Amino acid sequence: MAERFWEQKSLANMSEAEWELLCDGCAKCCLHKLEDEQSGEVFYTKVVCRYMDEQCRCTEYQQRHVLVPNCVWLKPEDVKQFHWLPQSCAYRLIAEGKPLAAWHPLVSGDTESVHRAGISIQGRALSEEYVHPDGMEEHIIHWVE
Q: How many independent structural domains does the chain possess?
């Protein structure tokens, strides 16, 4: 794999392996989101998918789309729709022509750097198992990135 491939290639030209490596492991895309139907504004909640573990990894990654039909599936062809992703997300940054942050594991060389930098949901999320679907609005968050 080319060194610093994310600076050399567009999202559409990345291999599947490169695409997967671009994920920083913050797990913010696995948080439940609410959308204002009138404004289109997206609000993140601190409620996360039941399959997320404490290390911000999906315990059912290979089956996630079967087990959770509305699970987010980021694909290069959907780049124009990435506006809802957190500003810190590597997919969004690359799509917008911006550099990765120093804490990103591809830059730091350390998969834990995203957690130490306070970017991930580690220790800040609540499993959907403990939240009634009608109570999601009570868990809207405004984390600073």
A: 1
Domain that holds residue 108: 5-139
Please give the structure tokens belonging to residue 53: 């573990």
How does residue 9 score in pLDDT terms, banded at 50, 70 and 90? very high
Report the phi/psi class of residue 104: left, alpha or beta, with left for phi > 0 and alpha for psi in -120 to 50.
beta
Can you name the residues that pair with 31 across neighbouring β-strands? 48
Q: Is 125 within a domain?
A: yes
Q: Residues of the chain with pLDDT > 90: what percent?
A: 71
pTM score, two decimals? 0.88
Sheet holding 31-35, edge to edge: 31-35, 42-48, 126-127
Give the closest residue to 25 by CA, choosing from 100, 128, 99.
100
CA atoms of 95 and 36, how far apart (whole Å): 24
pLDDT tens digits for 80-90?
787 888 889 99
